[in-house]
Amino acid sequence: MDTPENHHAHVALHRHAHRPRPRGSREGAPDANGQPAERRVSDGDGVPCRHCLDDVAAGEPFLIAAYRPFPRPQPYAEIGPIFLHAEPCPRRGETPDLPPVLAARERVLMRGYGADDRIVYGTGQVVPTAELPESAARLLGRGDVDYVHVRSASNNCYTCRIERA
After folding, report:
1. pTM of the prediction?
2. HSE of 46 in the Cβ direction (CA atoms, 13 Å)?
3. CB atoms within 10 A of CB 97
4. Residue 21 has pLDDT above 90, yes or no
């Protein structure tokens, strides 16, 4: 597969991993649904950690927790499942580089959100991962889009947030 990293070195974007520290999930703190995270063992197929933005390897334990990637509840603040390494992993920093969890995917779903944390209608699109940097830059070039969510193209699961650098 073509390496998407090479397609976006010039794009000034930052990708953000799961913002809250997963320590709470690892210690049994309630998730966005008020439940403790579930513990499983990865089969190595499509278990992306939202903290380090890398896949959980086969045989490694991971947690499933409900997550709301918005600052507060409101009608567009979806809650959905995320995966986290069960053992501590380094949080992927804000970087313009395409994280491994995205580089391994063929397509992604992107949606633009305004300053009010609501979906900006007409911004939702499924794009080849290699086109992600240019597509995100185009969305962020709109005056009504403050940030972009990147999600699984097949399951709509939240992956990361992209902002202007």
Report:
1. 0.81
2. 8
3. 17
4. no
